[in-house]
Amino acid sequence: MIKHVVIWMLATFSVVASPDAIIYVEEGYSKGSGFFIEDGYVITAGHVIKGERMVVFDGRDYLSAELIKLDRERDLALLLTEKKDHPFYTIAEQVEQGEPVYTIGSSRSAGREFYRIEGRVSELSRWVRTRQANGEVGTENDRMITGYFTPRGFSGAPVLNEKDEVVGVIIAAYSTKEESVSVTLEDLHIFLEEE
What we know:
Blueprint: E1 6-8, E2 13-16, E3 22-27, E4 30-38, E5 41-45, E6 53-57, E7 62-71, E8 76-81, E9 90-91, E10 100-106, E11 114-123, E12 127-131, E13 137-147, E14 158-161, E15 165-174, E16 179-183, H1 185-193
């Protein structure tokens, strides 16, 4: 079972006109990205969420969203919007070393434009301790690492394979190392299966 993955690339940003299944989350000073999985459900990073209700932007419309589930340790949140027939991503069953991947998210500094960054899976394991939004050091968790830097606002963005399946969720970035930290595919499956 793959626990986490490192992805490498030469960072190339390209603007995505209207990403069908990607959203921009803004709740007060907290901003991030997210994505639809089915029936109006959205996944984002847990640290982006500060309350029970928020508004999300899908590139065309503003949608009301309600917090359904929050896992601070895994840093994942599940939201429900009123738009049940929205395009969505499926969750992959596995990820392979060397597999091409990409991330689509919205940078805080670019308003509500969405960007795509491409890379490849290059390493399959790393334990990481991340810092919480309030500055506190979080618990050490098994994480997937991407070998490209994602700008502020990408927290909650999906890491996708060539079949457009989700293999991870961005939760942090290290600008000094040109790396981004993601929730593992295994943790994503556990989060969605738990009651």
